[in-house]
Amino acid sequence: MSAQQSGMVCNRIIESFLEKLAPFGIKRFYYCIIPDELSNVCIVTDDQANILNSDGNEELHIAKMIDLKKMRFAVASDPEILKFREEFLHRFARNDEGYQLSGPSIRKKYNPYIWPENTMPERRKRSFEQLLNLYQIRTRISFYHPVKDKKGWIGICNLFSSDKRGQVIDNISSTPDELETLLREFAETFNALAFKTINPISNFRVLSPTCVEILSLVAQGCSSEEVGKQLYMSERGVNYHLDRARVILTARNRTNLVSKAYQSGLL
């Protein structure tokens, strides 16, 4: 199932963004937050959390090789662009040279990064071209923007145009600073409005929705027994989720866990 649109950014803001992108030939986009590969913060999966020892490490650990297909929410121009994303990641990303180059480190040279045209192996070129035509995409662009006060996380805005790559480059080159200013402005807006749904810890299922719900109840002052009664779980099951969260968020105790959950934007 493809990711869903976050309901925390109203249509008016999205329409305003698209209106300002139009002079560049950009008609669709999606925005999410991912781990920054240039950061020292790394990521572990929920299963790997069992073998980590949190003592003596006060930094948040999240998986560097996070499975992007697990994303649940994004701020997007329309649901169809998220369907394109899903199909691309499942069928073509592994073989796409542009995708291999498009990680956050690319911003050291190019930001925004304009993807090369169809770089699929010959046996896959035709089917990928059909996918691009189906979604009226000829040019793809990625822009990276650090998330304020969140070490190790970076926002990525993927933009799509039905114009040829050369035309889009000309559009951007004519006002080089204008697009970057626009993208930074709206990235900060999306972060402020939608951070709870596009938070990478919950959005990529590093912590499950059940675990986040348990954290919310604990933050309200509920004991494990009380949480269990509300969620129809055993006290042992509640503590299992809390122990996993404590390791992933490198929290010393329950109070510190709630504090770090707030700092991370989970609550």
From TrEMBL:
One of its GO terms (biological process) is regulation of DNA-templated transcription. It comes from the Bacteria. PROSITE patterns: HTH_LUXR_2. Pfam families: GerE. Residues 200-265 form the HTH luxR-type domain. Keywords: DNA-binding, Transcription, Transcription regulation. GO terms for molecular function: DNA binding. CDD domains: LuxR_C_like. InterPro entries: Sig_transdc_resp-reg_C-effctor (IPR016032), Tscrpt_reg_LuxR_C (IPR000792), WH-like_DNA-bd_sf (IPR036388). This is HTH luxR-type domain-containing protein. It comes from Shewanella sediminis (strain HAW-EB3).
